[in-house]
Amino acid sequence: MAILGVHGLHFEEIPAALVADQPVYRLNRAVRGLVEKVKPEILYVPFPFDLHKDHREVFHAVSVAYRASSEAGRAVKAVYCYEVQSETHLAAPYIEAGFTPNSWVDISSFLDTKLRALACYESQIRAAPGARSIDAVRALAVWRGSQQHMAAAEAFVCVRQLR
Q1: Cα–Cα distance measured from residue 92 to residue 126, given in angstroms and rounded to the nearest whole number
Q2: Is the separation of the CB atoms in 59 and 81 below 8 Å?
Q3: CB-CB contact of 155 with 103 (8 Å)
Q4: Fewer CB within a 10 Å sphere, N or C end of the chain?
Q5: What domains appear along the chain, each with residue ranges and CATH number?
């Protein structure tokens, strides 16, 4: 958090890797409460078609939270799905939607900071050539950047953009 300059963090009492096992109403209530508390204008959520069931459930709970029938939901101006290295590319080809970005953010000046922050997450980082290696994360950023003539980029699927 210090490397990224993050000053606040919110936790819910829903254990990682057990999100998909929670009753839908409980997950929806937790996510809606967080959206109401933080009042974000932009939401970043996992792309729902990957190997990790929790990513799918979080995407759906966030979709419920930002729907226009709630005041907090109407305040959300944009929703972007991100790819998860080591998960998104494992969706079943031709059966599930593949990650095809429609929005890119130039991270050229932040890539080294991102890699330093990721290196702190030792339990999730793997040795190269693994998809969760620092080398692979850098390679994906360079690849995504090359798609838009940038040195490095994060790519997203924009699912909501209000003007």
Answers
A1: 23
A2: yes
A3: yes
A4: C
A5: 19-161 (3.40.50.10320)
